[in-house]
Amino acid sequence: MARVLQWWSHSKTVALIWVVSAVVFYTLFQMALRNSNSASSGRYYAFISSLLFGSRENFVEFDLALMNFDFADSLVSSEVRRSKLYDGMARDLDEKGAAFLKQGETSQSLSLSDIFTLKDGSVEPVLKAAIPPVRANVLYLSTEYSVPISETVKRMVNPYFDNSIWFQNSSLYHFSMFHASHHITPVPATEDEIEAEANAVRATSKTLCPLNIVLDRVVLTSTGVLLGCWQVTSGTDPTTIRAKLRAALPRAPEKQLYDAAILHTSFARLLGQPKASAMDSHNSDLVQFFHELVARLNMELRGFRAVVSELWYVEEYDVLALALNGRMKVRRFQLGCLTN
Ligand SMILES: *[C@@H]1O[C@H](CO)[C@@H](O)[C@H](O)[C@H]1NC(C)=O
Question: What stretches pass through the bilayer (predicted)?
Fold first, then answer.
């Protein structure tokens, strides 16, 4: 009799485990099915399989740009996510070569020849009206930090190029965070709506804490953009900043231009071949030349520390106004670091 009772209790435990497993599996399966109609089904599916099989690495390699369900962010820290992203960006030049020497596109899908002209031997931006104006939220890097960086970049890069280079204005070094409207998905707004957006961003900035950041690496993309890629040592993480801006700006485009974790600023855009004399020691191997140039920049700049304490709401009346000294209206907000 005792053995029968023991068998019965054991069977109940086994049955319970089976039922719980079945319910969990069924729930996850239904989640996958329900989302199979949406464009992001692949991502949900990847997320579910990474939960089941513990493959976090694969998940990170996925298209991060469109990840917009909040619990996924807890899978990897923003710091790890940024490192992986920067590794990938650094590989870009190896994989695609120096595409900008043919006719590259920027990260915003504009061919460079549309953006710049050579006039009397010097590079000038071609400004084009943005209709409707782009509304960008960017973190601002003060000239206390940007001027020394810009001077280092110019000193190290200028000797190899005959003017075929455009340097970011050091008064306008910025980290692109979140667009209320961009050129791929324009969101027209009235003056009142723009005022309301600016007020929402001002309120958000009060809850953000200044960021202590360190330059992780300098990267040259295959499109010829020389970027500084940063890590955060303290302050509000860019992932959180973007999530708060999204909540504050509900009409903003669903698809944003950059990964939620990235913290990058553009230093310069290379537009043409280095001087023949610069190439002599590299057997005309361009990619090798650029690698060495970037390595030297990294030796000088890696580890550079800065503090970011301003968020800007920018109406760009010209395409890429922040990058090309175009027309714009800037509203500047100090990060308040108030708890709420
Ligand atoms: C750089 O930006 C500042 C601030 O917007 C502006 O006053 C200055 O004219 C710009 N420099 C150039 C060369 O356009």
Answer: 15-33
Q: Is residue 103 in contact with ligand 1, taking CB distance under 6 Å?
A: no
Q: How far apart are CA 195 and CA 218, in angstroms?
A: 36
**Pocket lining: 122 vs ligand 1, CB cutoff 6 Å:** no
For ligand 1, what atom is nearest to the CA of residue 325? 14
Q: Which domains does the chain have, with CATH numbers?
A: 2-69 (no CATH), 72-334 (3.90.1140.10)
For the CA of 172, the nearest atom of ligand 1: 2
Å from CA of 67 to ligand 1 middle: 36
**What is the chain's Cα-based Rg?**
24
- Residues in Cβ contact with 302 at an 8 Å cutoff, skipping those fewer than 6 apart: 215, 216, 217, 218
**85 with 246: CB under 8 angstroms?**
no
Q: Quick check: bond before 238 cis, omega within 30?
A: no
pLDDT at 47: 32
Side chain identity at 186, as an amino acid letter? P
Residue whose Cα lies nearest atom 9 of ligand 1: it is: 325
Taking Cα atoms as reference points, which of 19, 49, 17, 16 lies closest to residue 31?
A: 49
* pLDDT the model gives residue 68: 37
Please list the rounded mean pLDDT of every run of 10 residues in the chain (340 residues).
Answer: 60 68 59 40 30 26 33 71 94 85 53 71 88 97 98 96 90 98 94 98 98 97 93 97 98 94 95 80 80 96 98 96 96 91
Nearest ligand 1 atom to the CA of 330 is: 5
